[in-house]
User: Which sequence fits this backbone?
C-alpha cells in the first residue's frame, strides 16, 4: 500500500488486509462501512477515510494525543481516527490500533 504526504491512506483497504492476517475475524458491511468482530463483539469499523476502534482505556487515552483522533461521540469506548493526509505514521497508527483492538476483543 503506497501513500504520499498529501493523500490519506485507504483505511478500509488497510483493515481488510489486516483482517485477512488475523485469526477469528468476521466482517460485515453496510455499504461504506465494514465492521470487524472477534467472538461476540465488534472491535473495529472502517471506511475509506475513517477508522473506529474499541481500545482499552489507557491505550485510548494515549491515542487521543494523536492528530485527527477523538472519542466517538456516538459509541462510548470507541476512538475515531480520521486522518486528513498521508503523513507517514498514519498507516502505522491505524495498523497498531486495529491489531490492539483485535487482541483485546478476545478479552470481552
Assistant:
Amino acid at each position: 500500500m503506497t501513500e504520499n504526504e498529501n493523500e490519506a491512506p485507504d483505511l478500509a483497504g488497510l483493515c481488510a488486509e489486516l483482517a485477512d492476517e488475523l485469526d477469528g475475524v468476521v466482517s460485515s458491511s453496510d455499504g461504506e462501512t465494514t465492521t470487524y468482530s472477534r467472538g461476540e463483539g465488534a472491535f473495529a469499523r472502517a471506511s475509506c477515510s475513517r477508522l473506529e476502534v474499541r481500545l482499552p482505556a489507557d491505550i485510548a487515552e494515549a491515542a487521543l494525543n494523536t492528530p485527527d483522533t477523538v472519542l466517538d461521540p456516538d459509541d462510548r469506548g470507541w476512538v475515531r481516527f480520521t486522518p486528513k493526509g498521508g503523513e507517514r505514521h498514519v498507516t502505522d497508527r491505524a495498523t497498531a490500533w486495529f491489531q490492539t483492538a483485535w487482541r483485546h476483543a478476545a478479552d470481552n
Residues 11 and 17 are 10 Å apart (CA to CA). Residues 90-105 form the longest helix (16 residues). The mean pLDDT is 89.
